Amino acid sequence: MHELSLTEGVLRTLEELASTQGFSSVKTIWLEIGDLSQVAPEAMLFCFEAIAKTSPLTAGATLEIIRIPGRALCPLCEVIVEVAHRVELCPCCKENVLSVIGGEEMRIKELEVE
Q: What is the pTM of this model?
């Protein structure tokens, strides 16, 4: 489960931000996770609940997941379409030429801190 190491990375980032921006606790974290990122949001929530309570910075914090749909561009039709998988046919021309342009990300979108 790589979500555990990803969650630990998010917590390290929060610790770095706390030291540079001067906050002492995190109340809510909004985390964007792309549908094509190969990160399971449910596993991230589980891991966060397990390890966030071990740090005074994140004890009692809430993790909110914002799902970002996969998006791809067809260079032939010049359309942008939502995709559920990295390899799909263009719904317009039925060619296998789509280039993923979104939905692969995982990033901290917003924080509520004290």
A: 0.89
